[in-house]
Amino acid sequence: MSPQAPVFEWPVRVYYEDTDAGGVVYHARYLQFFERARTEWLRALGFEQTRLRREQGILFAVRAMTLDFVRPACLDQALRVTLSVDAPRRASIAFEQRILDADAGHVCCRAQVTIACLDAERLRPTRLPEDVLRALAPFTDRLANGDIAHGL
Prior knowledge:
Blueprint: E1 8-13, H1 27-44, H2 49-56, E2 58-69, E3 78-88, E4 92-101, E5 107-119, H3 130-136, H4 141-144
Antiparallel strand pairs: 1-3, 2-5, 3-4, 4-5
């Protein structure tokens, strides 16, 4: 990611339902926090997932994810989920995501996530629509310079 490329942030509060018996965020909940941030990022760009499926016949699915649990988050803690675009390709987008303590700023969890663009009917990889690519441009210099990687 370029140092000047913007980072999207989404606030999350840890609720009782997000925790295990010890009041610590259950590991699978981090995936949901990451998903919410990606969905809200798309919405902020003007793309709702139901509309993308209906109007452009595409959907997004997680292709790969690597997680690093750095520091536990706990009940009632305010968090910030961040998202930055790492490497857009013809049919996928790679993200770096972090979950940070909203007050202290330390990292609780970080992830490398690759999202595949799929044809909604065939569930096979398909090109990212041009309007989506244009909306991604501010998030990466590689896209702004027209340097989209080949392949998925």
